[in-house]
Amino acid sequence: MRVPAAAIVFSDEDIKEALSLIESSLRSGQLTLGKHGQALEEAFAARCGRRFAVAVSSGTSALEIVLRSLGVEGREVIVPDNTFFATAAAVMHAGATAVLADTARETLAVTADDVFSRVTGRTAGVVVVHIGGIVSPELPRIEEECKKRGLFLLCDAAHAHGATLDGRDASNWGVASTYSFYPTKVMTSGEGGMIVTDDQALAADARVYRDQGKEGFTSNFHTRLGANWRLSEVHAAIGLVQLKRLDEFIARRREVAGAYDEAIRRLGALSLPAAQKLGESNFYKFVAYLPQGVDRKALKQTMRERFEVGLSGEVYELPLHAQPIFKDLRRGEYPGADLVCARQICPPVSARMTVDDARYVVESLAQALPVGATR
């Protein structure tokens, strides 16, 4: 594949450092909840500008832990219709009902008007997702309205490491933000996630929940219905090395995104979401919209087979209301989510790519699109 859909970056120096950290854990015998995990928490909290960070096994567990700590059982939590399965699933695993809100084309996120039209007496809070690394300009209004109504705001920042809005880090909104370190993300620990918050009580609860609900690491006194949501020292070591490169990774992704932005605007056949800004998104994904009627599956096949370009997975191919497991959550129509999910494509972005790679991708798209396709 000339330009693969995704690529993980580990330099020889990074591999050497990660192996050294892992060796120290193996020699010490402390393979979980040790010094590497603590170092990653401290460094990530400082990077985000939050007081506390709690390392966990995944972005999914991070969401469920926060929701359990907030006491959502038996209540409703509003989540975007356009998000990954885990956002709504975490709400349900925490004992609440997920209420789906529609998605705006320009932000790939919920709008304040739609969110607050769905608030009832049972609503506990709102989960906002920074899809593709875009922090929606609607977020300040959503945060302010949540405060007025006594609702929590939780941000699913699984895509948004280092992304900003008006100079404010993606993590600096609401009671907490949660991150994923899955291998496709801008930085990875292999498997893992992180909770960041300024709430000391929530952070303390999260540490209990992640370790089988025990009051302490050496205790067998269980005070919460937790699970094995710990992050191993091996994963923490990898995360520490990757975190040092985060700004470098984002800078390269923005360089590639800038080349895409320029070339796609010249091409004229595709359109771009207005909130996808070069100085704010981390470009976990670069999102563009296809002209109506273009067969996305056929286009991806042509790009792969004829041009050796792997278009990245969409964010997302299907809205949650179209997922069989969530069919009972549907409340009316979701035209915004239907449009966003049906017409978007994601040209590949990685810290391995070059500007020339990006230009080649757009040149290939120009040839692969049907003749006469216009936005």
Q: Structural class per helix/strand content?
A: alpha/beta
Give the overall pLDDT as a whole number.
97
Text of the CATH class of the largest domain: Alpha Beta
- Considering DSSP H and I runs of 4 or more, what fraction of the residues is helical? 25-40%
Strand content: 5-15%
- How many beta-strand segments? 11
What is the N-to-C order of secondary-structure elements (H for helix, E for strand)? Answer: HHEHEHEHEHEEEEEHHHEHHEH
Query: How many domains would you count in the coordinates?
Result: 2
**CATH fourth-tier homologous superfamily of the largest domain:** Type I PLP-dependent aspartate aminotransferase-like (Major domain)
CATH topology of the largest domain: the name is Aspartate Aminotransferase, domain 2
Number of helices: 12
With strands numbered from the N-terminus, the spatial order across the biggest sheet is 1-9-8-5-4-2-3
- Cα distance, first to last residue? 28 Å
Principal-axis shape: globular
